[in-house]
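[step 3/7] inverse_fold.run input=structure_tokens len=220
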């Protein structure tokens, strides 16, 4: 039986609807219990500020919570390397998401920047309904494959029959933008005035999605 195999490519541009903020709280203490206590205290302080500014408590998610021994390799007078104990480092990462809102983002970042806690701040934008985007992408890939198959069949003076097989690539697709790192302390000029928020004007770029599907038709 004669066959024709065509790989179709689906492409979509989707506007992200969600903002995700990730706060990385890190520090170094001499004792394990000090590092643990400092991590908990600083994280609770950040969470309190976020909740007081309108974020639901249940929206705050812990991604990592680690306390580990920090060492550094040093070379002695004989050229041998040894681990030098530096202390216990804590690394606590919390994140939260909300519908795109530059005013809320500016307010939250401003409040965080005033704290003695100095978390690293990363912002990225996400597609809200990634299942729909994935299905639309697959449909576009199948349609592209069908269009190509029809053109090839017509050019070859044959007729397409039934589909024999359909192979989806299952490519890992990013449904989010890259992280933006945000300066997380007030400048002296900004903190000297009675500001209540950062004036943020961000319009996230569309997220480009692409995937492929391979379809095999019988031909007559």
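[step 3/7] decode complete -> sequence:
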């Amino acid at each position: 039986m004669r066959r024709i195999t065509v790989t179709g490519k689906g492409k979509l541009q989707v506007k992200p609807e969600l903002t995700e903020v990730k706060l990385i709280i890190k520090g170094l203490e001499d004792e394990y219990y000090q590092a643990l206590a400092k991590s908990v205290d600083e994280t609770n302080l950040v969470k309190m500020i976020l909740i007081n500014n309108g974020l639901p408590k249940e929206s705050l998610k812990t991604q990592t919570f680690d306390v580990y021994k920090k060492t550094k390799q040093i070379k002695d007078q004989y050229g041998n390397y040894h681990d030098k104990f530096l202390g216990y480092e804590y690394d606590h990462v919390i994140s939260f998401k909300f519908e795109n809102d530059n005013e809320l983002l500016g307010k939250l970042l401003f409040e965080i920047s005033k704290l003695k806690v100095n978390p690293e701040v990363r912002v990225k934008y996400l597609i809200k309904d990634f299942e729909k985007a994935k299905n639309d992408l697959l449909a576009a890939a199948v349609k592209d494959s069908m269009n190509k198959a029809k053109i090839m069949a017509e050019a070859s003076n044959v007729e397409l029959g039934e589909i024999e097989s359909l192979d989806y690539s299952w490519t890992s697709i990013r449904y989010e933008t890259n992280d933006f790192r945000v300066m997380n302390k007030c400048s002296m000029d900004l903190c000297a005035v009675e500001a209540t928020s950062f004036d943020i004007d961000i319009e996230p770029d569309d997220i480009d999605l692409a995937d492929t599907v391979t379809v095999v038709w019988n031909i007559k």
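[step 4/7] annotate
The chain has four helices and eight strands.
The CA atoms of residues 132 and 138 lie 10 Å apart.
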